[in-house]
Design goal:
Length: 483
Amino acid sequence: MDRSAARAWTPGELDGVLGGWTDGPGPLYRRLAGALGAAVRTGDLAPGDRLPAERPLAAALGVSRATVADAYAELRGAGTVESRRGSGTRVAGLPRAALRPADGRVRGGTGAALVQRLVDGPAEVISLSVAAEGAAPEVRQALAGLLEDGLDRLLGGPGYHPGGLPGLRAAVADRYTARGLHTAPEQVLVTTGATQALALLAQLYVRRGSPVVVETPSWPGCLDALLAAGARPRRVPLDEDGVRVPGFRAALPGAALAQVTPTYHNPTGVLMSAGRRERIAALCAAEGVPLVEDLAYDTRLWDAPEPGPVAAYAPAGAEVLSVGSLAKAVWGGLRIGWVRGPAPAVERLARLKALADLGSPLLDQALAERLLPGVEELRAARAAALRERLALLESLLRAELPGWTWERPAGGGALWVRLPGGADAAVFSRVALRHGVELVPGSATDPSGAYDAHVRLPFTLPPARLAALTGRLAEAWAAYGPA
């Protein structure tokens, strides 16, 4: 094998490849060996790659050194790895026929474990990788209405609308216009959720090695869409008003794109102020950098004023693209999102959308068209329920985990919690998974180390589930402390 091209994996990098390896039956060392063997078979670990030493890998995974040593021994017995004094443990050479194509993980990304939880489906583990609820009751009503009087119009046509169902595009445009941002239907592209919208925007604007300005922390799933297109992130920290202006200004020159989450930022819950939105839009216009604002996390909790989209503050000629969806207000299973922007950019996106899937499902779009006019009422109903669940989670945390701290979010569906005592949230997450809770640690949202002691705790779960969650977290914290 060619060891000159081999990679030396750090414990943190290998942790990202392994994903939720602690799930399943059998002793821990065997589960770890199975995950490492799977990574070799998919090609994520290549022949000649050097694995971390036992002690630092054990520390990163939150297990004993004996667990790692036994896993390596099992892999050596299977011929998957080889260990030599002075050169450590390396992946052994395998016949090319034994390798399978890589399994969809984004190189350098941090969202693989979150995606894998969605792929695996429900389990006994309480997964906090998604802050979402079940469908609003109005979805059933809209579906009944569509079956009664709306199908003939849909079934009578060919079924291809790459830009989106005309009525839905008009309804989205009307909603932006009502919020002070005049919008025509041709400025709207309907997508299969906000995730596809971000992926299409990355495909349009980003090339391999393109600098892209992003906030930090950032939600892994959103950031991975940019990384998959080859982006090189320029990360700018937040404050209580949103992304910081000096750092944003310094990061813009030469950037291919900038991306912000101004309305209830994920994971912090920060609401960008109107003044900050105006400054950000002006800076992007002056540098000629297209700006993407992700408005999909529009879960409003309180009655405080909510600024309009960043695009509403942009000077003439600025290229601001606003991404939205119905996932939070209505239901994540209704895979409807959209991009609002200048008509020429939307037309280019529509061509990419047509290449991807020829258009989002029309039945979903027809439901969304019926639901969108009442979405503000749906948001208000969601907020009332979420306020109660937020208060319950805060009470449970204060009682069972009194050292944990947080700021109440301006909106959204999760607390951004700081663990005490210099805790490593990534290691604690491994312990928590063994106690039945899948966490998103701060290191998945920011590689700088600034949020290594943070975890994201959604309060979208039913009350009984929130009680079970805090109980499991308390048990995991007690187990983590002595370790």
